[in-house]
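User: Predict the complex with protoporphyrin IX containing FE.
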Amino acid sequence: MAPQTSSAPRPVADGPKHNSLGLRIWHWANSGLVLAQLITILFLFVIVKVKTLAPEFSQVLAEKGVNLPAQELRGLTRIVAHRIWDWHIWIGITISCLLAYRVLVSFRQRGGQRTAAKIGAIKARAAAGEAGATKALWVRYSYRAFYVVLGVMVVTGLILVFEDYFRSIEHWAKEVHEYTMYAVIAFVVAHIVGVFRAEVTEEPGVVSAMINGGEPAEGV
Ligand code: HEM
Ligand code: HEM
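Assistant: Here is the predicted structure with protoporphyrin IX containing FE placed in the model:
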């Protein structure tokens, strides 16, 4: 048996990993915060249903002989809403800083770690007639679309945070922010289902590559 020496060729090229450390940090921090952001909305509009609290409190008090109209209780229920909105705002500001960090990361990625290189490699596989490469290309484009969606959430969210300076467009920003949320939900659901599917079918190890970086990127 041939002795193993340190100069023995390695099965994969040395070089930067497939997913850079910066991208991985951004990915997990951002996904946790986006999920947390969706949870704040779930609490406000579904679980606690803050808007219906005042009439319900008023009804319970009336049964005990205390007459306090819902209108007067709104000040109290607003305290609950404000507590949840405070979380939404601070998580939102952190997501905004993370998006700026993601832009910096894109400048620091090397060779095959760059999105353009990843897309180029998939295009080459598609041109060579590899089955599934066209789908992989659409998955990549969906990431680009998500960055645009996230950008819209951040810009409209910041307008709402600093609404005192943007009174004329505040209403518009609220509408855009609210409707774009559905695009966020659609991406998150499709992405998580897609990633799980890829992991158990054609791309085992895709999730761990987003944790440990994966094999060194090719062509660097
Ligand atoms: C709110 C939740 C999430 C969001 C917003 C999100 C967003 C993204 C984005 C934008 C990318 C592309 C990164 C890039 O290359 O520029 C990505 C990649 C990836 N995500 Fe997520 N993600 C979320 C949750 C998850 C979860 C829960 C998992 C694992 C179970 C996961 C696993 C992955 C993997 C494995 C990739 C790399 C896929 C590939 O190389 O094609 N993500 N994610
Ligand atoms: C990315 C995920 C996000 C989701 C799903 C989300 C969702 C929502 C929804 C549904 C509303 C209610 C809009 C309405 O009342 O019509 C809202 C309000 C708001 N969002 Fe977001 N948002 C996200 C990100 C952000 C970010 C990044 C920021 C800030 C930087 C932000 C700041 C705000 C503010 C300030 C409000 C108004 C709060 C108030 O009425 O007091 N959001 N968001």
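Residues 70-108 form the longest helix (39 residues).
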